[in-house]
């Protein structure tokens, strides 16, 4: 048994050394990789788009997170230098207005805290007189550390999906507002900006910021919306940008297209809500059947017990 634990610990240690070397040692990159890293570094310097309420919440946290902020900045630069985009996780961070460095720092600190939990439990068991194998605390600490590093990812994924659902609802309303502004005689760029300026909702703030960035960069507003849709993984916004680009010179077609898209999104949202309500109804029905079956068994138990004793 001791030989097995020795081999397991040695294998895990060797794997950790290999991953550490692969992380810090990288061959000479090509031109494409260098350009991607420079572009990623430029993107990492962009400030997050926050609403006034989110900014007030961040200021209220004070200077207690200075160490965390320093680690986040170092990890942000480390990831940008190596061109890490994090794939779908990067898009989840974008819609949550969180930085890559903050996410990596959260994973590191959470994993480290959970890693130290294993030796703490082992020390408590030793004080209580419980004899455990020497390699067990290290294995438990590795499991807890991996679990702690995965917790921020799972939490981010759930929160990002909720925000995407809310963003899709706002996009449907935004389409109706744009169609109304076009009917009033405004041009497409003015209609997009006016529709995004009716509220301080965080989704409309993101759309308004994308339109403002597009004007500063000298690109069309729908290209800015397309970039936003790609960054936060909202297919409806990307499709809208493509449709606006194809029919930018025909106001009547744009109005009808936007109205049709808004109706389609509302129908899809209604069907999803009805589907969820149907699932909840089925769950309630199963719970009622189980409760009724248990109650009937409770009533029949004395009679069944009496018959078995005869």
From TrEMBL:
It is a multi-pass membrane protein. Residues 174-301 form the Type II secretion system protein GspF domain. The keyword Transmembrane helix applies. Keywords: Cell membrane, Membrane, Transmembrane, Transmembrane helix. InterPro entries: T2SS_GspF_dom (IPR018076). It comes from Brevibacterium samyangense. It is found in: Cell membrane. This is Type II secretion system F family protein. Pfam families: T2SSF (PF00482). Its main location: membrane.
């Amino acid at each position: 048994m001791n030989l097995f634990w020795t081999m397991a610990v040695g294998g895990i240690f060797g794997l950790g050394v290999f991953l550490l070397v692969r992380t810090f040692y990288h061959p000479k990159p090509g031109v494409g990789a260098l350009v991607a890293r420079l572009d990623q570094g430029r993107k990492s310097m962009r400030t997050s788009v926050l609403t006034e309420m989110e900014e007030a919440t961040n200021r209220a946290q004070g200077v207690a997170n200075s160490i965390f902020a320093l680690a986040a900045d170092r990890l942000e630069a480390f990831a940008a230098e190596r061109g890490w985009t994090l794939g779908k996780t990067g898009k989840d961070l974008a819609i949550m207005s969180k930085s890559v460095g903050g996410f990596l720092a959260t994973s590191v600190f959470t994993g480290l805290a959970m890693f130290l939990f294993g030796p703490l439990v082992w020390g408590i068991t030793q004080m209580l007189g419980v004899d455990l194998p020497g390699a067990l605390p290290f294995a438990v600490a590795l499991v807890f550390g991996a679990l702690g590093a995965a917790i921020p990812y799972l939490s981010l994924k759930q929160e990002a999906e909720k925000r995407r659902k809310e963003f899709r609802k706002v996009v449907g309303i935004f389409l109706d507002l744009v169609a109304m502004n076009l009917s009033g005689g405004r041009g497409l760029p003015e209609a997009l900006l006016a529709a995004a300026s009716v509220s301080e909702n965080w989704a409309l703030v993101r759309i308004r910021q994308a339109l403002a960035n597009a004007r500063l960069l000298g690109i069309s507003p729908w290209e800015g919306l397309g970039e936003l849709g790609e960054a936060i993984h909202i297919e409806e916004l990307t499709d809208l940008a493509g449709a606006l680009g194809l029919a930018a010179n025909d106001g009547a077609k744009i109005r009808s297209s936007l109205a049709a898209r808004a109706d389609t999104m509302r129908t899809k949202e209604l069907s999803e809500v009805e589907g969820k309500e149907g699932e909840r109804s089925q769950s309630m029905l199963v719970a009622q059947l189980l409760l009724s079956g248990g109650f009937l068994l409770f009533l029949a138990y004395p009679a069944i017990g009496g018959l078995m004793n005869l």
